[in-house]
Write a structure and sequence with these properties.
490 residues; 9 strands; Serine Threonine Protein Phosphatase 5, Tetratricopeptide repeat; Transferase(Phosphotransferase), domain 1; Phosphorylase Kinase, domain 1; elongated; 3 domains
Length: 490
């Protein structure tokens, strides 16, 4: 039987799990692939002819005896790879001929462990799926991302293919948190078939995908199964979700539900079209002190709520401008908390490197977190101080240093310099920032204390501005003796 060297089949609809990943972050897939498949690198060049083959032909398929001639090399496409093309085109004659006459392997797997059945199921070709099964294709093979032909057909809403595969015994992939009894399905459970990714786009560098659910736009975070190989993590995640379900606060992004009974598992939250604070600061630069303090109050109120949740506080651990979103009314909401910490812990283990070197959040991370010491809610207060200073200064903390160098500076008790005019830090705003990033976490205030101080600062900044505006009014100068109704009547 023909068993060619592995190539990747790049045409048409890709694996449903990979499609989510790809939308989220094209680079991630490449990195993961590079990470897991060092020995396949020499095959990367072989992918190119596969794409070129379809450019010059009417249907993307090839006659079994055709060859492609390059300038120097002669590349013959193996029958099993041609079978992937035939499955992609729904070409029944081609499938039959390749398997029966040219010994193509009906269970051929490409570099990503995708089979002809995966390809036909993605494209929605009922007859091609039926034919492949009759020719002894395995019904439930898993690709590199863990997706089966049935999972792909469900994702792409190819309902007839779904029914056909189920009739032949295909089983929906079992989620690690799957419950047998319908009564045990959690209240927050969302049916993945209700989530529509057809107009999907990545938000915020790929952590979340934009999708629609029950007529509203939502943000969806896809979770890899490998995160939940450990029972303890799974239990923590289950507790976390039931906690997220109870969270209601105007400065915290609203959790809408999760997919836990199917894979891939997903978390669904409200979608905020105005984007995140990082993008906003990039376009606006330094904010006026009054705006910065108002935004700081929004962040502090959201964080105070999370920290005071009983029985245990939710510690964000990744508070930074890209995890703070703007709503339609111009207020800020804290996002990507709770679950993000669990995911980071597991990723740290999986990738066998410290969690702290993630380029973005590393710049805002408290030194005790970076040093893998015990930590508490005060790590978020440290990050908050850096964000508040950034809003006044107009650029990220230690902007000229790399994230790792910034971390080492914090550990050496250096802090970003105050370069903006002292009057922008009036009313003890500078002192508040300094106490929030104190090296000793016990000396940093709680968010409840921070709110009291910010409220006072906000009112002071506001009063002064109103007085300056009022002074030049002519009626005040002309008729100082009667500031009552007569002066306004003039």
């Amino acid at each position: 039987m023909d068993s060619p060297a592995a190539v990747r089949f790049p045409l048409g609809r890709q694996s449903s799990y990979a499609a989510l990943d790809k939308l989220a972050n094209d680079d991630d897939i490449h990195d993961n692939h590079h990470h897991h498949h060092h020995h396949h690198n020499h095959n990367d060049d072989q992918r190119l002819p596969l794409i070129e083959l379809t450019d010059g032909s009417s249907d993307g398929g090839l006659e079994p005896d055709e060859e492609v001639h390059g300038d120097d090399d002669e590349i013959e496409i193996p029958a099993s790879v041609k079978l992937m093309f035939a499955a992609h085109e729904g070409d029944l004659e081609g499938i039959k001929e390749l398997v029966e006459d040219f010994d193509a392997d009906v269970n051929y797997t490409d570099m990503d462990n995708r089979t002809p059945l995966h390809v036909a199921a993605c494209q929605g070709y009922v007859e091609a799926v039926d034919l492949l099964i009759k020719m002894n294709a395995h019904v439930d093979p898993k690709d590199r991302w863990g997706s089966t032909p049935l999972a792909d057909a469900i994702y792409y809403k190819n309902h007839e293919v779904v029914k056909l595969l189920e009739d032949h015994g295909a089983k929906p992939p079992m989620a690690p948190m799957h419950v047998k009894n319908a009564r045990d399905v959690p209240e927050y459970e969302i049916d993945p078939q209700e989530i529509d990714f057809s107009n999907s786009a990545n938000i915020n560098k790929g952590t979340f995908l934009r999708a629609s659910w029950r007529g509203i736009e939502v943000a969806v975070k896809k979770l890899g199964d490998e995160v939940f190989s450990d029972e303890e993590l799974l239990r923590a995640f289950r507790d976390e979700l039931s906690l997220l379900q109870r969270i209601r606060h105007p400065n915290v992004v609203q959790f809408l539900g999760a997919v836990t009974q199917h894979t891939p598992m997903m978390i669904v939250t409200e979608f905020l079209p105005k984007g995140d604070l990082r993008e906003f600061l990039k376009s606006k630069g330094a904010l006026k002190p009054r705006t910065a303090v108002r935004y700081a109050l929004d962040i502090a109120r959201g964080m105070s709520y999370l920290h005071e949740i009983k029985p245990l506080p939710i510690i964000h651990c990744d508070l930074e401008p890209s995890n703070i979103l703007r709503d339609d009314s111009g207020h800020l909401k804290v996002a990507d908390f709770g679950v993000s910490k669990l995911l980071k812990v597991s990723k740290g283990v999986k990738e066998d490197r410290p969690v702290s070197y993630e380029e973005t959040s590393c710049r805002y991370m408290a030194p005790e977190l970076f040093r893998n010491e015990d930590y508490d809610t005060k790590v978020d207060v440290f990050s908050f101080a850096l964000i508040l200073q950034e809003m006044i200064e107009g650029y990220p903390p230690f902007a000229s240093k790399g994230a790792k160098d910034a971390q080492e500076a914090y550990a050496a008790n250096e802090r970003p310099p105050f370069k903006a005019s002292a009057k922008l830090y009036a009313h003890r705003l500078k002192e508040l920032i300094e106490v929030c990033w104190n090296e000793d976490p016990t000396k940093r205030p709680t968010f409840r204390e921070i709110i009291l101080k910010l409220d006072h600062i906000y009112n002071s900044v506001g009063r002064r501005r109103r007085w300056i505006k009022v002074r030049p009014l002519k009626c005040f100068q002309r008729n100082e003796s009667s500031l009552g109704s007569s002066s306004y009547a003039m």
